[in-house]
Amino acid sequence: MSRSEHIGEQTVQARVGVRIADWGSARTSPVIAPAAADFLSERSFIVLGAAANDGSMWATMLVGRPGFVEATGERTLVIDRLPEAPDPFAGLFEDERDVGMVAIDLETRRRIRVNGSAVREGSGLTVRTEQVYGNCPKYIQVREATEVASGRRQARHGSVLTDAHRAQIRKADTFFIATRADGVGADVSHRGGNPGFVTVADGQRLSWPDYSGNFMYMTLGNLELDPRCGLLFVDWESGGALHISGRAAVDWDPARAAAIPGAQRMIDFDVERVVDIDAAVGLRWTFSDYSRFNPA
Asked: Start and end of every Pyridoxamine 5'-phosphate oxidase N-terminal domain (predicted)?
């Protein structure tokens, strides 16, 4: 299977009635256009997604001053950072592997996604791109970032969500989801909504609505082939990172979706592993405005 013949995406698109020919992965380009290169070089953070050696999926955030992500060729990105312990990705890229990436300007709501493969070279990562494409500004909350000195990064590992984790998730207006499927690679996507759009059903199951998007269904297409995925909830005020790995399933019952404003369908996620890191990133964000696309 190639990225241009993503059976998972095609299955989902057929199910929901998308009639655009060769939509999704088939329409993306591996080339980093000059505008995309400029945008990436201006970013102060990116979110990465990849599978660990045991197959579990994770997402993490890398932070640096503008210029820490640089296009050095039309299909090559160099990231002047490596995930360090206690990050779930510490040491992961000693071997080349599929990687998904999203770069967002939270002030302008612009974003670019990059999928390909990554490996450590020296003190950074080199990414060979397979897909580079822009996304619409829907569901992105406006925030302004401030750089701070790095604090002590203390991690807590577990297999269940604590009361504090559940409280953080219930008030979240944004998270990131990493998925992957054999033969088509990894992907990272942004999810946003008003606080409370992610619910904690029974303590260890999260649910959220899938809102109307760009009809590419890259995330749902990967989940169609492999339910393993990783979630990242960032505490924008403290710089903390809540990494959760587990399995997700799409609920296609229209009656359930109809009960949630704006929902096209519902996603259920079962928690398997949790890594909670204090002061994980050296940025803090000030909230400005919710997206006008967020359903009430």
From this structure: 161-260
